[in-house]
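Quick entry between incubations.
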Amino acid sequence: MENSFAIAVLLIIIAALLFVRYLRLAGLLRKKHAILKQVSSGIKNGALSEAEDLLDGTKKEFKNDPAINYLYGYIRYSQNRPAEALALFLAAERSRDPRVLYSSGYLYFHNEEDPGESMKRLVKASGRGAAALRAGYTLGLLNYVMGNTKSAERIILRALAAGADNEAEIDNALGLISLRENDPGGAILRFKASIRQNDGVPDTYLNLAEAHAAKHERAEELAMLERAERLHPGNKHIRLKLGEILAANGKIEEALVHLTAAIELDPGFSLAYFSRAGVYKKTREADKYRIDYEKALACRRRNPHDF
Amino acid sequence: MIFETVYCESHGNRISCAACFDCGKLLCVECARRSFGRDYCSSCEHAERSKQRRRYSDKLVFIAEGRERQEARALALRHAALIALCLATAAILLRLH
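Done. Structure below.
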């Protein structure tokens, strides 16, 4: 009987100690959340070094905390250090935080080119939480890259219906899917919708021009590229495409202007050298042809994956 | 002739199951890379991906809202459950006493 009284007293003491422990941990948690809030607003405002300094101050107290690792990871990504960012996101994954799964899935897709690992994470992240819409869009793109156009369309449309705010990007992606499914008419509508929302993306014009070409609307293709060139004169890919089309239409002088401009914009642009070599071949200027062809090969050797 | 067995160009002893969509190289299961619904060799697949990647945009978006609420709730619940267990057991023991 006395034993049970002693145990009861002991349990009451343990409960009191647990309550004290809770108060201490809750205080620490509040402190951590306040720091996270400050760091998050720093990252949003582009003050990365200040945000990193704040995080460095928490290293002792919150070592290996998933939320801290996520913020470090995003800062590393913004500093163009994707491998370090991925390692930090992977360390944070034990929290099963959807934004962490979205970030590691994104890096597995775009940087590691590992669709399997990316898919696993993006599927989980797209189901719930604040990252669901962005993860849904990235998952749609992953499916598109894998050739699963039907799934890609379904997933991206679902993200759009759920309120994704990157409508211009989504319309462009849906246009690409339509192109892949041999529906250039549908693709044209999507690309035009994307441009209406954001005309600052040169690649959407290139995609639209390609859709017109797929529909054999050569005049519209050229008109679109000329418009794109007026809006984005410093885009080497638009200059290259314009040069190629003009050369194919026999407008050699104009073609050479654009191809030369593309080379001036990027002296290591092998495709532009190849195209200009093709034009010189047509005009039977053997020396110029040989020089450009050799330069194209040299550029390709230096940077084999630059397209 | 049509039914002649063809072999992988990189692994001569393995039967080829695909040809690269771009360069036509014969590929075995290990060498074939599927991308955009087509089979490529590794270098053509890389080139195709680089070309395609320019055509869409996708940026890693920073998401400020994490699991702070869940974390606080989990801490409170865990402690509340333990405290309740201790107090309930103590109450039973005191009644017995």
